[in-house]
Amino acid sequence: MTRMIPSGGFHPSATLVNINPYVFHIGLVLVFFGYAPHIAFIQRITWLRWPALPDGVMYVAAGATIISLLIALLFRLTDPVLKRISRPDDMITWTVTFLPFITGMGVVSEPSATLLARDHVVYGGPLAIHLLSLELLLIWFPFGKLMHAFLVLPSRMQLATFFGRRGVRS
């Protein structure tokens, strides 16, 4: 875990570049695992349940995640190095990650307790678009850079082994 914290010595302008991925990933986890309708959806499929976070926390986390994604896109489009190394995969990955957040915010119109108290879906069209955008994300997941969610530990272990062979101290 200590290797995830950026080391000192970076130029002050690099602070946002270092913090933005943390904002995105923490917001993503909070929204996916903390929002009451998402927990209810997971419970219907797996019977697992846990306490939900308050709606206010979810709205702030979703807003911060959307802003973080927009900042990441701005970096990718304006930074000469990122622009040069970007491929279509990066833009597709950004789009399929951004769509569930925007469509999810479009579905939210009432407090989650009110939504969960109903026995039917009030906004079928917007919810269907939200679920379709999530399904598009899940279809793209194994083919794009999103796979880093599962490959992060094996790749870090491989890199550590490589550096260990070369005599790099940690």
Automatic annotation (TrEMBL):
Keyword Membrane part of the UniProt annotation: yes
Transmembrane segments: 21-45, 57-79, 91-109
Ranges in a coiled coil: none
Keywords assigned by UniProt, alphabetized: Membrane, Transmembrane, Transmembrane helix
Source species, domain of life: Bacteria
Keyword Transmembrane appears in the UniProt entry: yes
Record's protein name: Nitrate reductase
Organism listed in the record: Acidovorax delafieldii 2AN
